[in-house]
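[User] Could I get a sequence and structure tokens?

[Assistant]
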Amino acid sequence: MDNNKDLLDHFLNNCPVEAKNYFENILDKLERIEKKIDSLK
């Protein structure tokens, strides 16, 4: 878990644009997963 925190800290401190894209990608994937779950219900 510390490894992920270090990675996020690096992104947030050094690469704000990459960090924003990183989180947007995660949210995109979560949304797609939610849609798939909804379609299975």
Q: What stands out?
A: The longest helix spans residues 16-40. Residues 2-40 form one domain.
